[in-house]
Amino acid sequence: MKRFFFLVLLGAVSIHAQATDPWAMFDEMQQRMAAMMGGQQSSPGQMQTRGPWDVQVNKNPVETGEEFSFQFIVLQNQIESVQAPPQFSVQNGFVLKSIDSSVVKVGTRRGTASATQYEFKLIAPKKAGRKAAGVLSWKINNAEYDIFHLTMNVRKSYDDPAVDVSLTPNKKTVYEGEQLSVTLNIHTYEHFQGELMATNMDLGSDFIAHRADLSNVKLMPLEDNPREASSSDKFAWISPLKTGQVSIPPFQFKYKKIGKPKVVEKKSNKIGVSVSFSSIQQEPEEAEAKTAPLKITVLPLPAQNKPKDFTGMVGNYNFKASFDKDSLTLGDALTLSIQISGDGKPGTITDPKLPDFSDFRSVPPENDIKKKVTGGKVITTKNIRIFLYPKKKGEFEIPAISYNWFNPAKKKYETKTEGPWKIVVEKGEGSAAPYIPSTPTYTPAAKEEIEDLGRDIRYMHSVHEVPPQEAPLYKSPLFWILLLIPIPLYAIFCAFIRSHRKNSSNTALVRKAKAKKNLKQYTSAAKTALQKDDGKAFYAALENGLVGYLSDLSNREFRGMTKDLVKLNLTELGVSEENIQKVMKWQEDCAFARFAPVTASAEERSKALLEFETLCDALEVLK
């Protein structure tokens, strides 16, 4: 229809060409064209009208880096006042390759007419999207006019990747032990078909890391190109364990994309007639994407003003220590509460140096470590509770407790001190007084009393038949057995009490005794998550269960360990190489299942639970 309007317009212009300057009719022609089209303006890339000419784009959309062209056609009898050929000014990365002109014949209402065709060859930019390619201008009657604004839809080539992935750190230079965050960026293009799955997301062995949960990552369409989508989410918070240049290996993903269009020749034989035809088909293809290696520069901590008892913590920390009371009685417990929190190594906080508690009897302390993402950082909090029982009454002074760290923002070491404290221990009201045995006194009876007693004596009657006397009790074997049985029972009881006290004060034995109980809790949580079809909670329970089970059996903290340290510790504990590899693979599989944007089926989770229980049974051989 637009072509028809254009030919009508050319005919109208040719009638008045000898009497009127066509360029002076520019505004009138534009108004008439708009009126005939119902007030609608033609879209970019279609025929544009500012006079007796036509613009034709041979291809839209185009692929990135692809060559394309458009033609500007104008009747020769309408360009008498033109001083120079039209010019095209490119924009947004488009490249003008060449301009050619030729004489062609075009049809009009009055027949055919000669026209000049200008062909502009361009190369599309490397970046996809809807972009303004440039402006076609022409100098007419000593005045330059913008004839045509070309806008193109540029899409990724089918040969190019359909997914771009990259890692971005919030810092590229940090101190040893300082925390930094890593963001995973995902960009999908219009020929992306889905099934994005991580095949390797290993951070390497140079970091302590806290991974974010990426199972619910959502790709959001771009505003300027809804056929593309992107996502940018924090993947992990890491702290380097050594100085110099360290790097995160490339993350690898696989996905499906739409393949390049292919011409397929087909033949059909119906009713004895053989017909050949061709069709264009696009088959889905499997492709891979990976991030570039991420390099981090790690600076050593300054030696100047470094405390002798440096804790190794790097970041911004808070330290608090307090007692629940300052006076108590013998038999009561005194509780020391310590809280340390900071944004250093995720999940790791060293203990402070404690004073001498030789005047008190202590039991194994309670430790609780929690991690929480706040303000774009992982804040690790450690709570320690120490229970002290005084051995004697009196007044005691407990020395101050200090904690230090290196603050990278201030580039200096900081120390926080709590205490000292004065504790008063008194003797309790219920304490028993020393036992002093009483000595009986003998008072001789008076003569009158003896006489009274004599009068009270009754006569004794003789017994004619005396029954046979039984053997004495002490001569019975049963008497001696019953007499001696308490001695070995008492020895056994004392040995049990000593063993119980020893085991209660041995943290390793206490943890090992509770290992099975804690493992059952994680297994129960995993089974509950399996029933609720909660993949995130399922794999979290299994991963935490395995790490906790290893820690309880060995009394070594496996949380936050690198892969190399885990392998080294398991080797020292006597675990076989086969089981070590199973542990490493299990942790890696759980990490993929929790953090990669992929969901396992219910059957795969049930199989994973069975493998988890089998692996834990094999690890009971830990020393």
Describe this structure in words.
The protein is an alpha+beta fold and 623 residues long. The chain is 25% helix and 37% strand. The strands form nine sheets. Strands 9, 11, 13, 14 and 15 form a five-stranded antiparallel beta sheet that branches. Strands 22, 24, 25, 26 and 27 form a five-stranded antiparallel beta sheet that branches. It has a four-stranded antiparallel beta sheet with strand order 1-3-6-5. It starts with a helix and ends in a 5-residue tail after the last helix. It comes from Hallerella succinigenes. The chain crosses the membrane at residues 478-497. This is Oxygen tolerance protein BatD.
How many β-strands, per DSSP?
A: 31
User: Ends: how far apart?
Assistant: 87 Å
Q: pLDDT average, as an integer?
A: 79
Largest β-sheet summary: 5 strands, antiparallel
- Overall number of domains: 4
Decide which structural class fits the backbone: alpha+beta
Which fold name corresponds to the CATH topology of the largest domain?
Immunoglobulin-like
What share of the residues does DSSP label as strand, in percent?
35-45%
Pfam family, one: BatD
Organism: Hallerella succinigenes
Transmembrane segments: 478-497
Signal peptide: 1-19
